[in-house]
Amino acid sequence: MTATNMNTAPVKAWLLELQSRIVGGLEAIDGKPFLTDSWERAEGGGGISRIIEEGNVFERGGVGFSHVMGKNLPPSAAANRPEIAGRNWEAMGVSLVLHPRNPYAPTVHMNVRFFIAIAEGQEPVWWFGGGMDLTPYYGFEEDARHFHQTCKDALTPFRGDLHPRFKQWCDDYFFLKHRNEPRGVGGIFYDDFNALGFEQSFAMTQSVGDAFLTAYVPILSRRKDTPYGERERDFQAYRRGRYVEFNLVFDRGTHFGLQSGGRTESILMSLPPVVKWRYNWSPAAGSAEAQLYSNFLIHREWV
């Protein structure tokens, strides 16, 4: 497949439709509309950031679409693929992070993306990436199992080995090495994926993106009205600190966006609005907070 006959327009069209559909589903739950912020990038391309702050359910959340392009890849993109250095490139995707106010409702992240690097007279280098992962503050078995089952169902039609592979990839990726702990209960993650060919790799990525509302909305609906107090809010803010640490220290998407001259406000919309850090703190033995660590922030085969 050459650059001239690779039609990426359907990918962009689906990403825009996915963003709109997800925002519509979330607005139906929250009751407050998302703000729309369209932007352009000097080197090429732009995006649409859909943002909610101080909503009825979401304390902060963003569902962003971007389609950006350039001539010089940032180090985060070319580090593992030296053959794409110096090529013209395009990247497009939808990325979201939602931080509910209620501590019993988990934070969630999802993204789906496409990347292509082109050089005259050479085959294009392209891949899809994506996934979703769940970060609870108070763990519930039924929530984790539902989320993982939905992820598995999205991948099963394409190849039987994809779910265990992408589940492990997620566990390995969303891991805070300096804390020696997972960010949450995981989900699925994949990157640099083209093993099924363009059409089927795209179809698989569509299946992942289309599964998001099914994976998350039932969990959110169960937890968003659970009574809570200052203790739960305090622990939520403490655990949100781990989310900030991961996104700023390890996340490839954050690094790519900042190194490529991306729009900082849109890149950092994933960060939670209220966060706390404490020195050398741990929860009381036997508490609900301690159970998050002992029962959920561990490697488990949920389905």
From TrEMBL:
The active site is at H109 (proton donor). Substrate binds at S95, N111, V112, R113, G261, G262, R263. InterPro entries: Coprogen_oxidase_aer, Coprogen_oxidase_aer_sf, Coprogen_oxidase_CS. One of its GO terms (cellular component) is cytoplasm. GO terms for molecular function: coproporphyrinogen oxidase activity; metal ion binding; protein homodimerization activity. This is Oxygen-dependent coproporphyrinogen-III oxidase. Its cofactor is a divalent metal cation. The record marks H178 as: Important for dimerization. NCBIfam families: PRK05330.1. Pathway: Porphyrin-containing compound metabolism; protoporphyrin-IX biosynthesis; protoporphyrinogen-IX from coproporphyrinogen-III (O2 route): step 1/1. Residues 243-278 are annotated as: Important for dimerization. Homodimer. It is an enzyme of class 1 (oxidoreductase). GO terms for biological process: protoporphyrinogen IX biosynthetic process. Involved in the heme biosynthesis. Catalyzes the aerobic oxidative decarboxylation of propionate groups of rings A and B of coproporphyrinogen-III to yield the vinyl groups in protoporphyrinogen-IX. It catalyses: coproporphyrinogen III + O2 + 2 H(+) = protoporphyrinogen IX + 2 CO2 + 2 H2O. Keywords: Cytoplasm, Heme biosynthesis, Metal-binding, Oxidoreductase, Porphyrin biosynthesis. It comes from Noviherbaspirillum sedimenti. Belongs to the aerobic coproporphyrinogen-III oxidase family. Its EC number is 1.3.3.3. It holds the Pfam family Coprogen_oxidas.
